[in-house]
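Run log, item B.
One chain of 260 residues. Sequence copied directly from the ordering sheet:
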Amino acid sequence: PSMEQYLSDPLLQPVCVKDFEPLAKAKLDPLAYDYLVGGSEDEVSLRDNRSGFDRIIIRPKALVDVHSIDLSVEIFGKKWDHPLFLCPAGGKNCIYPDGENTVARAAAAAKTLQITNGGIQKLVESGKGPAWWQVTTGGDFRTPQTMRAFVKRLEDQGCGAICFTTDIMYVSHRERNIRNKFDRSWGETGIPRDAQGQTPPPRNPERAGVYPSRPIPTPTWETVRELRALTKLPIVLKGILRSEDARLCLESGVSGIIVS
């Protein structure tokens, strides 16, 4: 950008990622902002994650030839220009209209991978979408037939991998959303407000101490093995935090893990 654009464009003013947060807070509906920045269970892990980044020490090497820098990385046989990918994050449409497709177009422009929970298929079919992995929370595995249909659909659509999220079998306990009486459907549709700025009574608000019942049992390691037998697509398990579980991933034929 020109110097005039640099000085006038508000999106060019932030000098680090954290500088975008006050801009988002000023622009977003307060309920959407809390949905975006909040964490679960007293937000202990959220604070620990941020303080963990502060503890990282960079030890630069001196007098290294940097005329040619290669940031590329290869994952599952595919080479990427850099190791920066867009992770699965629900509720994008609450933050920005048609947010999932907006992010997909950004991923395509950056030539990077998007791990998506769906909604970008038309963009993918147009040839303007990014490379993508499909997220599932296990609901597609309720029967052998639904698992088989799920796998076939992804293979036919050119999906690069199946990302099985193991840590969201139940709705997490997010105190900001509970205090805001946030309806979970608003995460996909946006915050509905009338002419007076009031939200309608939520039909399915998040509540303290109340967890939804599941009509089917939660998936197990046997589910992972059944999935492995059905497809040659890479299978990535998200939410692995213990070495014991990482070992079970290897034993079950999992292709990779996301520590999250």
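Observations after the first pass:
- Strands lie at 73-75, 78-80, 113-116, 131-136, 162-165, 235-238, 256-258.
- DSSP finds twelve helices and seven strands in the chain.
Flagged for discussion on Thursday.
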